[in-house]
Design a protein that fits this description.
By secondary structure, the protein is an alpha/beta fold. It has 15 helices and twelve strands. Among the domains are: 180 residues, P-loop containing nucleotide triphosphate hydrolases (Rossmann fold, 3-Layer(aba) Sandwich), CATH 3.40.50.300; 83 residues, no CATH class. 48% of the residues lie in helices and 20% in strands. It is flat and about 85 Å long.
Amino acid sequence: MSEILNEQEVLLQEETVEATPEKREISDEVLLKVENLCQFFKLGQSTLKAVNNVSFEVKKGEVFGLVGESGCGKTTTGRSIIKLYNCTSGNVYFDGKRICAGTGSYKDTKKAAFKEVVDAYKSKDADKATKKAALDKYLAVAKEENAKIKAAKHDQKKCDKDYAKQKIAEVKAEYLPKLKEMDKKSPEYKETLKNFLKEYRLASKERLVTKIQMVFQDPIASLDPRMTVKEIIAEGLIIKGIRDKKVIEEKVYEVLEKVGLVREHAGRYPHEFSGGQRQRIGVARSIIMNPKLIIADEPVSALDVSIQAQVINLLNDLRHELGLTILFIAHDLSVVKYFSDRIAVMYFGNMVELTTSEELFKHPLHPYTRSLLSAIPLPDPIYEKKRERIVYNPLADHDYSVDKPTLREVAPGHFVSCNDAEFKKYQEILAK
């Protein structure tokens, strides 16, 4: 399985021999932490669990791959992290601060405690002491969970305002002591005051979530057809509060050249470009905001193989040049293997395996992961005739009637969703 290479991976390797810089060292500092993330959608009387209890960490400078079949919840996970969706429950921490917080799990805990009270009062055998104990327990749980709900709502809605207040405090700490010491009539005082007011205004518009940017799957649908390339790329700067047109123009030209386009492209409209060029515009729009994290949502799935290699190389170059961290969402395993440091495999909203790129292809443990890897084709008709496609059937491959699965570390850094029996089995496989 580890020797399988398809045509796309071969092209990627051939085109990046000279272009790819040395591999960037990954920091031990965690930039993004996703904790028990759930994203449920109401479908009439039923509930669709698009993302169910997903947890992972992304370190600074890392490319973290998220793979799985269409509809498994990859894109929903990315959109929940960047707050395009309000998560149902769980937490997302970015750069040490909670930016997403759902209240569903806290409300469920309250409901469970209240149910115990109802059952106690309905029971004929329960005495007054039992009923009182159940009620006291519910009141204590409700008080604790209500405090968590209040904190979660605050972080969900006001994390950006808190971040702006922090930045304003930093600007004041930098400029106010200087202004107090200066002569108010001196030219230096007026210049410093002007800079202070400018920095204060920009700090008041700072948003923590803008440090996360997204590159969308469909390059044409994500670009406004009525706006020129310059207007599309500069929109974020204008919202941020930058007013100097010359500064905006120079930054737009700078990022256009970084992504392989030229200044003349700034005055054109999206429909005048090819698919690969549109995706470069999408990348330019994201990096102009100086993000720390980029969520690349299948950025190459709509492109030809040769263009895929160019866009991947572009992201790789920008990663090294700008020190970016990338959450790379895709279903093409060959591209993910080349580009990612670690890979998480998702199936029906759940994470089933998480490990390094090399280890995943060398020792795939979960049956679904093995099924995905067996689907990688080779441009070899003789091999293709003999290739056996592994079909994943959850009912046949697992027995979770008694012992439910959890994400467990079967080897250092290698996590698999399994129960006790499967855990021992996977450890035996790795020991061989």
